[in-house]
């Protein structure tokens, strides 16, 4: 039988999805009603119409995902009866007068709107347990001023601790501060005062988990029945009890919006000039500033304004200092960051990353190797073939790309130390961990520069810990960052990091190395450990990077070389902390190291003084 011949009639043409021509005229929805969004949960939105009917609605497809948030005024059509099982449709989101938004962190670019159309932002903090984090409060205030929202700070748990001194700076900016405690007999009077502030307004409560937001909501709204929780004894953080934003009506009129506890509040989407506009008199003065003034320069017009009226000088100084603090919360300007990365400093950082990549390839290949070679140096510390090979590779790259720079290395000594720029290398910090199969080891790379007056400082630092899937880095004026690469993911975005705001030693977490090498400071050191909330011997680079990330508040080691400290120094400083030796000399040239969040630094220095010193 001969094979069949095919012709064009055998080719089947699939018709298009629809043959109906779509009209350009969209529905007008003239019969829609306005409703206020009270909660959004898994594709269903609860709204209250102007008639007071509570309805459930879904969004029209063209509105897109995450287009509706609590506080929005929307137009709804469909079944508006509000009976069980009925479903309306949101067809329009009306224009917002403002919104509270955040990014995941300061390196992120995706903005997430939390609530909209707010009259007041009530920032709820606890006097203690958990400790108030000034950085987070500042970020909330920045967002409020940026969006023309009236901020109020509500301090809870005042029965356990007094209000920290730094709150007076917020008062200087006109921020109202009120206090309360669910354990005091004055609670009822305090709730009456709070209700008077909320009357007739849309107010949103924000703050950490565990500060008492849900407890406060239950006292303000009888029918709220919001779940409450305690602070985790291990982490010192609150547990999430509110999982989504919810608007609740107040008997006296107005709405109160409860939000889940927030631990990170990125501000990469904000314009600092709009923050200044919230203070009309100060804004007027800044119009005389030079273009692109950061308002921290000596030549800033605000400094002259402060000194122009002796009677008002103290008040003006507090206000300007407080505003400068808020402006510092905003991360490095994107254009400035881009300019820095395109400069010679950015090229130095890029080279430091390349050096770390070369070292990682060698050290990871030798980590837990059966044939790893280990010898003992004259100081009785171990060195592996991986240490030597990694430093060899780094030196070769520096000779090729920075022949005019000096090098200080742990394994092969110094070369060109008299030069104004030199690289400091620790091929494996934590060699004992490396050879025992413990993953807390890292390659430390830093660039130091010597100024005309002979002072030396670290300007670039990279700490790469490939067995922990982490790399930290910083460069002068550019901030500190961490990259976390897990599994096969090699393109994770950097995350900006910052130190903690813990201000009391009894609330602080201390990380150290061991009890060897302390000499006359051993007893003071042991006493300091008994004062802290928590102590752990993480040791080496890991302790100091935890300080930079805000997970630990104090890291201290009694004996360190330059290569042990240089990279850590700039990362801690750019994260907002302080790095010095135990005598208080800032920098990494002091023979030992203390890194803190800055707030606790002087206290620790004083506590570690030898008896009689």
Summarize it:
The chain has 613 residues and is α/β, with parallel strands linked by helices.
Q: What does this protein look like?
A:
- It is a single chain.
- With 613 residues, the chain is α/β, with parallel strands linked by helices.
- The protein folds into 5 domains: 33-93, Nucleic acid-binding proteins (OB fold (Dihydrolipoamide Acetyltransferase, E2P)); 99-258, Rossmann fold (3-Layer(aba) Sandwich); 272-331; 337-496, Fructose-1,6-Bisphosphatase, subunit A, domain 1 (Fructose-1,6-Bisphosphatase, Chain A, domain 1); 505-607, D-Maltodextrin-Binding Protein, domain 2.
- It is 28% helix and 24% strand.
- It contains 16 helices and 28 strands.
- The strands form 6 sheets. The protein has an 8-stranded mixed beta sheet with strand order 17-16-18-19-20-21-22-23, sandwiched between helices. A 6-stranded mixed beta sheet has the order 10-9-8-11-13-12, with helices on both faces. A 5-stranded mixed beta barrel has the order 1-2-3-5-4.
- Strand 14 (374-376) and strand 15 (382-384) form a beta hairpin.
- Helix 7 packs antiparallel against helix 8.
- The model is unreliable at 226-242, 330-337 and 487-491 (pLDDT under 50).
